[in-house]
Amino acid sequence: MTVNLPNLQPPPQANLDAAQVARQQAQHVAVRDFLDYYIGIHPTDALPARSAFDPAAIPRLLPNLVLAEVVHQPDAARPRFRIKVAGEEVVQAMRMPLIGRFLDEIANTNEPTARFPIESRHSVVESGCLIYRRGQPRMRFSLDYAEVEYAHCPLAEDGVSVDHIVTINYYKALESVTG
Questions:
Q1: Cβ count near 105 (within 10 Å)
Q2: What count of other Cβ atoms lies within 10 Å of the Cβ of residue 48?
Q3: Torsions phi, psi of 125, nearest 5?
Q4: Taking the complete model, does pTM exceed 0.70, yes or no?
Q5: Predicted local distance difference test score (pLDDT) of residue 175
Q6: φ, ψ dihedrals at 77, nearest 5°
Q7: How many Cβ atoms sit within 10 Å of the Cβ of residue 31?
Q8: Using one digit for the tens of pLDDT, what is the confidence trace for 166-177?
Q9: pLDDT at 143
Q10: pLDDT value at residue 114
Q11: Which domains does the chain have, with CATH numbers?
């Protein structure tokens, strides 16, 4: 299930509406709590600023968060995403160092599913609207998961141009079968 509302309203209001819809559909308490926090810092007339996002306000959620900086390069048509913060749950799922690296360096570009974490963030930058998804993993992790749930949420210091994306991730483990 993916929520990304069409941009019929100005981006800040469409993003706030999408966050509220995602909050209603979120299954895991950490995702709901994060979306409550995000909605709480979201102005009605602009996207939330990176400076408004205070990780110390949500310490219980830090293991499940990723903060990516949107990096525009003069010779590239689309931006890259540099990981600034990656919580312990995310690092365990990926089983590799993430902080300071670009997402396209981490993703195995020979793997067909590598485009999902990059393309979904491009969509957030282009639309100014969060993306929420819950369902089977669409990419390979170092551990097997039955389900993933995440929300990629835009942050914009000027209230308009997305310059960071904060993501809450929840990974549901496969049920073990014992005999």
A1: 12
A2: 25
A3: -65, -45
A4: yes
A5: 47
A6: -75, -30
A7: 23
A8: 999 886 544 444
A9: 44
A10: 57
A11: 2-173 (3.30.450.20)
User: What are the C-alpha distances in Å from 127 to residues 59, 172, 177?
Assistant: 29, 28, 43
Sheet of strand 164-173, all strands in order from the earlier edge strand to the far edge: 2-3, 131-135, 145-155, 164-173, 65-71, 80-86
Q: Rounded to an integer, what distance in angstroms lies between the CA atom of residue 8 and that of residue 27? A: 27
Which residues are CB-contacts of 50 (< 8 A; sequence separation ≥ 6)? Answer: 155, 156, 157, 163, 164
The one-letter amino acid at 103: L
What's the chain look like in SS3?
CEECCCCCCCHHHHHHHHHHHHHHHCCCHHHHHHHHHHHHHCCCCCCCCHHHCCHHHCHHHHHHEEEEEEECCCCCCCCEEEEEEECHHHHHHHCCCCCCCEHHHHCCCCCHHHHHHHHHHHHHHHHCCCEEEEECCCCCCCCCEEEEEEEEEEECCCCCCCCEEEEEEEEEECCCCCC
pLDDT digits (tens, 9 = 90+) for 69-85: 999 988 888 999 999 99
Note the residue count of the chain.
179
- Orientation angle between helical segments 11-25 and 29-41, nearest 10 degrees: 160
Segments in the chain below pLDDT 50 = 1, 3-9, 138-139, 141-143, 145-146, 173-179
